Amino acid sequence: MLWIAPAEKDAASTSLEKRLWDAADQFRANSGLKAQEYSGPILGLIFLRFAEVRFAVQRGKLEGAGASSRRGSRVDEPAAYHAEGILYLAAEARFDYLLTLPEVADIGARVNAAMREIEKHNPQLAGVLPKTYNLFTSTLLKELLKKVSEIPATLDYDAFGRIYEYFLGAFAMTEGQGGGEFYTPSSIVKLLAEIIEPFHGRILDPACGSGGMFVQSALFVAEHQKNPAAELAICGVEKTDETGRLCRLNLAVHGLEGDIKHGGNVNSYYDDPHNATGQFDFVLANPPFNVNAVDKERLKDMVGTGRRFPFGLPRTDNANYLWIQLFYSALNSQGRAGFVMANSASDARSSEQELRQKLIEARAVDVMVAVGPNMFYTVTLPCTLWFLDKGKTKTKRADTVLFIDARHIYRQVDRAHRDWTPAQIGFIANLVRLYRGEALEAPKVGAGETAAKLRETFPPLQGEGQGGDGLAYRDIPGLCKAATLAEIEAQGWSLNPGRYVGVAPGEEVSDEDFKEQLETLNEELESLNAQARELEQTIAANVAGILEA
Question: For residues 400 and 433, what is the distance between their CA atoms, to the nearest angstrom?
Answer without folding.
Answer: 15
